[in-house]
## 1
Amino acid sequence: MSFSTWLQLLIYLVVLVALVKPLGKFMACVFDGRPCGIDRLLGPIERLIYRLAGVRPTEEMNWKTYAGAMLLFNFLGALAVYGLQRTQASLPLNPQNLPNVSPDSSFNTAVSFATNTNWQGYGGESTMSYLTQMLGLTVQNFVSAAAGLAVLAAMIRGFRRRPQPAAGAEKDGRHGEGLIGNFWVDLTRSTLYILLPLSVVLAIFLVSQGVVQNFAPYETVALSEKIKDADGNDVVEQSLPQGPAASQIAIKQLGTNGGGFFNVNSAHPYENPTPLANFFELLAILVISAALCYTFGMMVGDTRQGWAILAAMLLIFIPLLVLCAAMEEHGNPAIAALGVDQQPSSTQPGGNMEGKEARFGIGPSALWAAATTAASNGSVNSMHDSFTPLGGFVPLWLIQLGEVIFGGVGSGLYGMLAFAIITVFVAGLMVGRTPEYLGKKIEAYEMKMASLVILFPPLIVLVGTAIAVVTPGGLLQPTGAPTIPNPGPHGFSEVLYAFSSAGNNNGSAFAGLSANVPFYNTALAIAMLIARYWLAIPILAIAGSLASKKFTPPSAGTLPTHRPLFVVLLAAIVIIVGALTFIPALALGPIVEQLQMIAG
């Protein structure tokens, strides 16, 4: 790779890690209800919200009540987004007079934004009114991310609770009722103290860089040169989209939502106008998820535990990031065989620039592709469909690893903690004793729930892909045109990527697939629902179980979970599960496509 690419990747990683401790400490204070620096300003608003909603903030919930509150809130949110789309033609703030969205697309989008997936089968500027973007999509960007943070806070409390014995509970080692906090309090504090202030700061910065933020109708301007459209007709003018974009873009990055205000997402100059904006948006994608590792360490009373989890994430992320950048800088040998110079120089960026913005080049494009798929963000500043086969393999596999290498805000870390539970269980089998993690014994119930967390995503992805590539609905649009215009391995990769993205709540895509059809809108929505809630509910069940267990002091047979051995073992478990599950499918897609490209 070029020195410039190495330098950009290094600067990004250094700044990201430097922000982990201060932001992580701040979020720990927020979740624990301790002074956090802005509580004097926002505290009265928080208390007013509780009074208006009838919430008693001191009342805690068991895991079933907590899960029920989360499901009810998310259901109502999805219903609101669906209703806004179906009626937007008759609602205000629609200067382009956009029609109502179709039922299947509305269903898909409502589920997508409620589940923090933000998969989009539509073009934002040609489909959604300003009101739908703000009141529907932007609001869900906040609260769906806050719901993930709330579930994580509940799980951490499960590890650190030291309840007093309940009557008659000593015999099975369970103490107390397993209370894990109040969902409404966690949701409110996550939104009010974490997501909202950070989003305001980032939105103001983005406006300073040229991101649009207005309610003006689209502007039509004359082109300086005539161009031809797809039918060969002359095009002499262009419509420039407007709208309240900066406010949505800030939370889409910070909340690992990723839904684009405009169709080409963060490759659009109105969403991502400068290299500096690109850098700060990239930081926003990973900074909360990375900092939550330190939050976890603080809340369980041992910051070394958080650093160990972060180290395992980086141990997987950095090599895959380097592989992606190297493959894109290497270029396409088939193009080189035609005599095209793909070497970087003072006059050209070199490498595989297909589908990439000349403003950013290879390094930031590869970094964004890796970061957005390591997190469950899904925004793009280049088209993953145009990456080289192994370059595209990296974002695809990062999604398939379970969105635990940083992952979504909250959801990524609680997914990684499920892998940590499995890791200490495997280690316990090696030494022949009951495994423990942070002083809580890991027994059959926790292992069953953790197994659900790691098994459901690949089940969704592989079964969904298999159905799509053998059924008429997955292969043909209602008009009879193919939904997969690219035959062979690349077309298979596009379908595999779509279900991987939906089945792990990512939202990015290999854009060659025609996904805005009833089959994919429905199938992918079902995948998103399962991927979000059939994982969050087992996590809350684990939290409730752990919260009711007594603390077991570490002994000579306890595996230290803050040392390099555990870091390597945890990373190996994540990779092995991903490799054993998805390598056969990947061999049919990007791997065989890479071999075909080399063979010429």
## 2
Amino acid sequence: MKPTSDKIELADILDASTNGVLVVDSRGCILYENRQMHDYYRLERGACVGLPVGDLIPQLEATSTNCIRSGEAHIGLQLEANGIAAVANISPIIKQGEAVGASISLKRMDEYEQLAETLESYKKQNKLLQAIFNASTDGLWIIDAKGTVVAWNPAAEAITGFTADEIVGKQYDELAAIGIEKKDVRHIREAVETKRRVSTFNIHPRSHKQVLGNATPVFDDSENVLWVVGNEHDLSELNGLKEELDDALKATEKAKAELAGLNLLELRDQEIIAESKAMIQVLQVAVKLAKIEASHILITGESGTGKGFLAKLIHNKSARASQPFIQINCAAVPENLLEAELFGYEKGAFTGARDRGKAGLIELAQNGTLFLDEIGDMPMRLQAKLLKYLDDHEVMRLGSIKARKIDCAIVSATNQNLEALVEEKRFRQDLFFRLNNFQLHIPPLRERAEDILELVHFFLRKYNKQYKRRKRISAKAIETLQAYAFPGNVRELQSLCKQAVLMSDDTFLDGYFADNLQIVCAPVGLSQPEPPAGSDNTEAPVAGTSDAAAWIAAWLVKILNIRPSPGAAKPGAEPDFEPLPLTQILQHVVALGRMIYSETHRQNAGPAPPPASPPPSEQEDEDTAEAVVNLTAALDAREREIFLHATQHCRTIRELAEYLQTSPATALRKLKKHGLSL
């Protein structure tokens, strides 16, 4: 072989090839084999020169001969020799128009497979990147180092209103010619100059969409900018998502309100009835406090409003529901025993103590709830010890030197004004603040007349079932009950309903309620009492005047039937009267006290109910009962028509309640009553 230059020969060039190379003459004998061929077949240098090519690779003999004779190349010949699979390309060597030999190039099959796999991997990666680029919901575009736009995805077309055909291939400085101003692409120049990500807000002139744009530079190994990748996000889409989120939140709140209405129905099993907005709000807050496991809750309200029921509700709705609920009435236990009941005592702590000691109620409430009723009556000495437990969560029994760690929720209740007690130095201010982390006030029954109807029906159903009775009540009697002040609140109403079911002989309890309320409730127009017989006082005081004491005195004279004797006018003479039995006097005094209390609340609350009618005859009773039955049936039928019409316009309990201007609980109960559904 002749050298091609002073340093590089033709053999050096062929040896540098990654393919095996054989050169044969016109007879098919090997003239040359390169280094790669030696490596393929493990040959020594020049070992095959002069041998027929068929001796090395039998499959090449006929093919190479045909190539030389025909002068046509053979490409992609697959062959196998000496355990090596390869692909051969045979090309004729033409000299002066005549084939004088052939050049054979071989590539091992496994090398081809590696190349194919690499190529396929690149193809897949390219397809993946292309799919991501085209499928992105953000507008994507790529600019090379020369400032030419090389890619523009479909989302960019939709956001900007410019197609890829209009943009790709143009310099970003030339985009002003088609409507994209330079200020809208200034962040691209900044990204190239500063070599950092630059963000901007744009409004595209063609689509009029506001977008958040980002330009991010991509660097080579020398930290030179290769490309700038742009990203644009449509803010109008974000605004749409925000509106959808707001709608979803509203729907969630609506569902929560409906669930709250259903939860209030579940509370009926615990004898907790609520129809008034004030009471519903109290129950909702109580359930919320229970869910977050709040402690140190103070429940306030008049006696008989249901503070104990509310405390049990908080316990039952909390995560501590499976643990003990311990309650103690601080006013019902003597002061000298209250400390031992609360904190317990050790053996021999005091005279009369149990031989084995006793755990206190706080210990028994471990992991549960301790309900301290009438907390305002707790002695000052014990208030200090209770405060120490609230601070340290440790209890030390009487006579013990070892403290016990106790974890329990504290719920307290009172019908007194604790703030006033604090000012009077009868209740510790620091204890008040510790117990009053969360306060729930139960309004008195006279302030939530809406609950009276449901409470009466609930108690009547309860006691009718318990005592196997079928007592009923009319709407007129409900109005009478709603006009009464109920100083004893729910407890008084419950007792009154129980007495009516047990004591009344009539199916309708209207007469019983009217008679018993007249005993404890003043008549509507408290008339001026007639002056006692023989009295010189011709102007008796009138109810409601400023001289209330004189009026009460005159009323006492009347009901106690005091009759002064004719000689009473004489100085120093004792009045002569006919005394009543002591029991009757006490009854009159109690009735008067109730009347005065009820009249005070009646005047504060508004007009009182009309005066009771005289008792009807038996025939009138029967006619009235029949009229009430017919009226009730007619009202039920009309009510069903109203609810049936409303269900055609409403889809949820909340919508139905708003449509009929009632509460969700009432709407749900009425649907069940009439066998209707949404």
## 3
Amino acid sequence: MQSYGVEAGQGGRLGAIPDAAGTNFALFSAHAEKVELCLFDEAGAHEVARLTLPARSGDIWHGHVQGVAAGQRYGYRVYGPYDPRKGHRFNPHKLLIDPYARVLDRTFVLDDRHFAYRPGDPDGDLSFDMRDSAEVTPKGIVTGEPSIDDTPKPQTPWRDTILYELHLRGFTRRRNDTPAQSRGTLAGLASRPAVAHLRELGITAVELMPINPIGDEPHLKKLGLRNYWGYNPINFFAIEPRYAAADASVEFRILVETLHEEGIELILDVVFNHTAEGDAFGPTLSLRGIDNASYYGLMPEDPRRYLNYTGVGNTLNVEHPSVRRLILDALHFWARLGVDGFRFDLASALARTGHQDCRPETGLIAGIAADPVLSRLKLIAEPWDASPDGYRLGGFPAPWREWNDRFRDSARRFWRGDRGQVAGFASRFAGSSDIMAGRGPLASINFVTAHDGFTLRDLVSYAQKHNWANGERNADGVSENYSRNWGVEGPTTDRAILALRNRHRRNLIATLLLSQGVPMILSGDELGHSQNGNNNAYCQDSETSWIAWRDLDPDDQAFLRFVQSVIELRRSHPEFRRTAFFSGQQSADGRKDIIWLHASGREMSEGDWRDQNLSAFGCMFGEGERVLCLFNAGGAAESFVLPSARGSWRCVLDTGSADGSSEASMASGAAGAVEAHSFVLLKETSA
């Protein structure tokens, strides 16, 4: 082995920080007895040095190694008790990934040597495995300070924001107009055709599904599948290696700059609630072997077991100062690289106090909201976790915004034709004031589809999930999707069924884009992407998930144009982008700011709202020239008596037509028919 000069160094900054003379290494562990730094050759195959970190400042182990420069591969071995009954799982035979590593040298591939106990041993996780894991563990790579992004940001106001959730790999994996080596990578997303699609569609912010290094679950390895979505991280600073065509750091910087130049913001989906180390029977990759008892929430009565608010085996102990520091340091790292915001997966798990109570108004969630840098970015919570008390929609403090799954369900159920949905649908359309009270409609991130669930095409094509390809006998995924196939399960050539499905695609996307709140579109929905009825494609790194960039058939071409036109309609009409809730009181022009209308033309009564058979209603709102929305979720045409207007009513959108367009004009008080399963939008005009 090679010899290196080692000095005490500094413990102020964690991670591997190079300087002119070498590199300073610092690692937190409150319960370790010794920490060894392992250096590897350029291929990461052979250990060339093993150095004991010579100094400890509090719970920070550190040392400065002379001659170690950027590009050096490294990992740690941490010594301490292997005593799962007391929460300790140290095993120096397992090479550990630095939690602060900014680059990993390879994609993680699960191996039996990653387990610190002997799988199959009668003592279970109490046994101790002495096989060395260095050969199969990704190594950190020492890197210099990243370039700080100082290019102007779009800083799009929330009221003007249109989110677009996409998977980095799936978005361009099948783009034939992108160089083959760039497809499915950061470079692919930054390519001219990909960015042009976003710009032409009218997107203002990309919400990128997790890009941190991914750990495949053991059961997926047995099935020959991979974790595709990426909600199973092994590190919070690095980028999954397979997401780069060449240099991930360079490509990420170019992506940020390219999107910003086009006025598009970049929001990262981050997973700080758990790691890929799983439950007590999972692999030892990083935090578990560094200091299991500090990093993870453990059962107070049995520290051998993990608190599992995430549903995947473990939950990070965000009350611990060093765990909280890790998360905040990671957020600041990405913010310095130019990221415009973050979406926090299972955010309720980050609001746990005492490992049990869920209190979003305190702790880490409140700390992020008060942070002088992070509070200026877009902060989006998935306001639930996997526990019964974790559903906290409406409970996150400003400036947080929240995914609103009740909007999704109301929109789906109303347009599916379920009984008694009018009142709930109206509340969601108007901004969910019953949920977001005191914060305004822009606190609600509205969506009808997301990565988890059916795509828009499948939502109107399948009544049941079809997840057989996931290898779990179709038992995974949500069973109730509030979907409907409209006559045939899955693909069909029946033109009447296809026409009805296309109409409902228009209904759902128009509802999403014209409701109060912030809309989020699932990538590929505008193109008619289908996952063949799979509503849990987390393990489908295949054409099931990859968007098919192809010549669209006439129906999908028309739908793409429709989505573009409704986005433009929202952009050009401030009535759909309110910052305050409707009050039902008179506005500056002497008219109520919103009026809810029965099809007969009168205002809705309390009895109407409770009418379980009502499927058609309308609303009129806006200052100056008003807009009139007419909804008919029933199976027959409905005659609406139009309210009085200062002039006439001009139809600007009708989902009952093949392309959603209409130029018809109608007089005040006239009766107009709204076709079955249709949404009609009219605008008041004095002309």
## 4
Amino acid sequence: MISVLYVEDDTSLLEIGKFLLEKDGFIEADTCSSVNEALQKLSRKRYDAIISDYAMPVNNGMKFLKSLRSGGDTTPFFFFAGKGRKSVIIDALNLGADFYLEKAGNAKAQFEELVHEIRRVTEQKSTCMNLDRSDGILASVLESVAEGVLAVDPCGKITACNQKFLSLLKIPGELARTGSDSPILLKYIQDHLEDPDDFSRKIADISSDPAITCQGTIHDKEGQVFTWSSRAQKTGDTTSGRVWSFLDISDHDRTGQQLATVKDQLTAGEEELHHLRRERETQEAMIQKNEEILDIITRATPDGIITSIDGTIVTANKQFAEMLGYSTAELAGRSLPDFISPDSPGEVMDSVRSGSGGNYEYSALHRNGSSFSVESTGYPVRFQGGTILVSIVRRVPGTALPQETSPDSGEIPVEPERKEGSTSQELLPETRPDREIRPEPVSFVSVPAGITTKEGERISLTWELDDAHLAADAGESQPFQGNDDSSLISEIDDVIGPDTSTGSQDRGIRSWLAELRRKRRRFF
């Protein structure tokens, strides 16, 4: 629903106009008959659009528009006035009026035209606001990656780069401004390399074939070592630019998995960088693509990514939720300070609640009550007078995450399915060399049995009885009609030999199984 303020000193036209504006259900109109009354309404309520007559007593529509624009109010403004001089219309548009319609002819048709223009202008403004929000979040994500990133268009003009790129290669800021020539910047990099020939050949290859993908390693004159890659950015089958990435490997090597993750992030970002350069008429498509790429990045990165407003979690990716032992649905709408240990630095809580951002190390609270150390970088994004805090959270290296369950948690393990033709030996745990059969921990009554094998080695077996079976035994007197255990005894005989235990501490396997069958107890 679009909210509109309609200002007109002709009260009869005011009533008709309100009816015609609201009849299709797209607009809700408030009316007033003077500029002073309109200013009072605007002090109490924000409107999506304003319709005003021009000639009114005390203050006319032009003074009304000047007052709004001088105070920073950018609400779309529409003149609906009597026939005026061309110079008046030009002055109104120069002052920031969005539309000027002269009163003439059929009132119904004219108000339909006003409704059409109001919907067009307000929807365009909403799209621009959403694009600004999307741009801000994307810029925060771009600054959070560890690589230096440079993006250029097909003409070689720089379209974007992050601060990491400038600091890694010590690039002067004036060389990397948006719209600058990338060949000049690449020549600057080349002049600071220890051996620039290979890099020069790669640049020549790119010039001859804009769709080529190149990569390599470079050494600068100060001893730093970088890996770099350059790949074409495509929209469909059309090459729409090129993305360069640089990674400092002077102090440590990156694992193959980390490199693959970074490349995936850059690949997902290439399409987004192209969309940010498209014309305003394609903004709707740009926003949709931005959201798709953000979703890919939040799922692909190993770090936790969350957005919050005034300390309340809006969204959280799966990595952050699993880090704390929750699902993403459980975290949405929760207070972020609830997951920060009270012994963390006070400025952490202040930053989360105010949305000011920054770099912090603090103790996070797991679902099971334990805590662990994390590093967090917060990026505040301004949107519609408020602040969205985008936080990148990663575990401090060398700190283990808490386990969701412990070995004595009491969870009943799932018994492995016996395959057709398998033997009991094949179901023994992987601790077979120790000759010890260990059942998974369950809430049963356990009775051990020691047995000596044919080779003279001792192993232990355990049979267990849960509460449900004990209760069933107590209420039943019918003999157990279980499966024949002769096959099982034969298989066990292959390991321990025939039953020869008599009166010793060892319990014979046959008597052990007989008691098992008699008591209707389960054998694990």
